[in-house]
Structure formats: C-alpha cells, structure tokens
Design a protein that fits this description.
The chain is mainly beta and about 110 residues long. The chain is built from no helices and eleven strands. The termini are far apart.
Length: about 110
Amino acid sequence: QVQVVESGGGLVQPGGSLRLSCVVSGSISGFYTMAWYRQAPGKQRELIADISSGGSEIYTDSVKGRFTISRDNARNVNLQMNSLKPEDTGVYYCNFARLGTNVWGKGILVTVSS
C-alpha cells in the first residue's frame, strides 16, 4: 500500500524560502507522477507543481520562477519555495498518482507572514 508523508512546513516572512519534502513508501513501480498541491484558506485545492517518473515537470503560473520541484530519488520529492508571498500561505499536500492509484499525504501548513 502506497503512503505519502510530507515535512518541512512552517512560518516564514515574505521574501523568504522554505523547502518541503515528500517521502513515498510502498510499491511505486511503473509510470507515476508526484505532485504538490496547495489549499489556501477558503479556496479549493490547486495543483502547484508536478514531476513524472520520467522527470518532466509542470508548474502553475503563480509559482513559475519561484518554486522548483525536484527528485532526490524515486521515493523523495522536494519543493523548494523561494521569494515567498503571503498568498502562498496554505496547506500543502503531496500526491502520488498512477493508473488505479491516487494517494494523498495529510498536508503540511505553510504560513507566509511578517
């Protein structure tokens, strides 16, 4: 059974940086994607960045040039967040997806505030 655990959130001032990490356990063979989503207060969950098992990346427009998704290995995916803005505040979720499987982490809070 695939499980996903996030770490690295917290409070940061505007303009600062944070690095989120996601670890996947269980069977992850075949093609899959791992992604970071964000749910801001009062808003729907939205895709922030995605990386496939082949290494291709996508980003939502609001984080392009500021956030970078990367992979340490097949089971560890990171989200480096630079130049953070108050509107980046929210709960960040890691997601693992492949055909027939869609697994979410519990989420981790990121607060950008002075």
